[in-house]
Amino acid sequence: MQNISDEIKVKSQYIMPKRLLSQAIGKLASAEMGKATEFMIKNFIKYYDVDMKESKIQDISKFKTFNDFFTRELKKGARPIVAEEKTISEPADGMISELGEIYKDAVLQAKGHYYSLEALLGGDEKEAKYFENGSFVTTYLSPKNYHRVHMPLKGKLEKMLFIPGELFSVNPLTARNVDNLFARNERAVCFFENEEIGRFAVVMVGATIVSSVSTVFAGLLSPSKGKEVTVYNYSEDNIVLEKGSELGRFLLGSTTICIFPKGKISFSKDIKAGKAVKVGEKLGEIKTK
Fold first, then answer.
1. Which amino acids are annotated catalytic?
2. Spatial distance between the Cα atoms of 93 and 56, rounded to a whole number of angstroms
3. Cα–chain-centroid distance for residue 83?
């Protein structure tokens, strides 16, 4: 049963100026403010209990902006990538929100809540049909997590959709109470081609206070002011990303969703909703014929 405090937290998101708030905090997070920036970072680390031992930069005064800290690079070897052939690698640090099979076009958001795969993919009926009855895994990145997203499999980049939308929080409370959350929020959908399983997609979902999403091939994708889906075609560019390589990053936290075609992959038995995960850990395997 939801308590009054949780109900207020959810309902307030419908009326708060989420985009203006996100833009304002985004400007603050990208500003070089010297000691003020250092103060913000120090207090953020303390409040969220951020583990800095793995960070490549240990001295917080070396971060010019809050975003530099938030998207910090880790030490070499901090996230070993599962190397076994036909394995699938976890793309982000965080917590598994949900995973499993897609029921025709319905993807599980939280217990009792589903959203449309076609809606998630920006209304692209052809792409949604391809992934119908496929598999998905959703990983929630909390503020304390490492915020770079990595490739679950080797893939050739085919296209990316940048889909405008809302900027609701994507924390577990909101996921349990806001219908169609991931198909409502602003997001980038990256489609890749893999030699063994065919097409797969990685979705980076924006959220309140996420000033922007960035990818290694397109750079910064700032929140959109329009309502049209922007299509980036990379089919002729021969961009191939290896399993475990960086795909993109969130400038302030959010959620990533991986989508695989029907019957092509199986998740590891120990991977379940609520499990804490890190980049590079074994997520599952490619099914052999």
1. 93, 150, 254
2. 16
3. 22
Instruction: Transcribe 139-193 into DSSP letters.
Output: EE--TTS--EEE-SS-EEEEEEEEE--B----SHHHHHHSTTHHHHB-EEEEEEE
Residue 54: left (phi > 0), alpha (psi -120 to 50), or beta? alpha
Whether 36 contacts 259, CB under 8 Å: no
User: Residue 31 carries which DSSP code?
Assistant: S
Residue 127 half-sphere exposure toward CB, CA atoms < 13 A: 24
Please report, in tens digits, the pLDDT of each residue of the chain (289 residues total): 456 676 656 556 555 545 555 566 667 777 899 999 999 999 999 999 999 999 999 999 999 998 899 899 999 999 999 999 899 999 999 999 999 999 989 998 877 788 899 999 988 899 999 999 999 999 999 888 999 999 999 999 999 999 887 766 666 676 677 677 777 888 899 999 999 999 999 999 877 655 578 899 998 886 556 678 889 999 999 999 999 999 999 876 688 999 999 999 999 999 999 999 999 999 999 998 6
* Residues whose CB is less than 8 angstroms from the CB of residue 13 and which lie 6 or more positions away in sequence, other chains included: 168, 169, 174, 178, 208
DSSP single-letter state for residue 61: G
Residue bearing tokens 């890749």: 192
Q: Which pair of structure tokens corresponds to residue 119?
A: 């809606």
DSSP state of 288: P
207 contacts: CB under 8 Å, gap ≥ 6: 167, 168, 169, 170, 185, 252, 253, 254, 255
Contact between 88 and 284 under an 8 Å Cβ cutoff? The reply is yes
- 199 strand-pairing partners: 193
Cβ count near 198 (within 10 Å) = 12
Question: Which 3 state secondary structure label does DSSP give 67?
Answer: helix
- Give the strand pairing for 187-194 and 212-215: unpaired
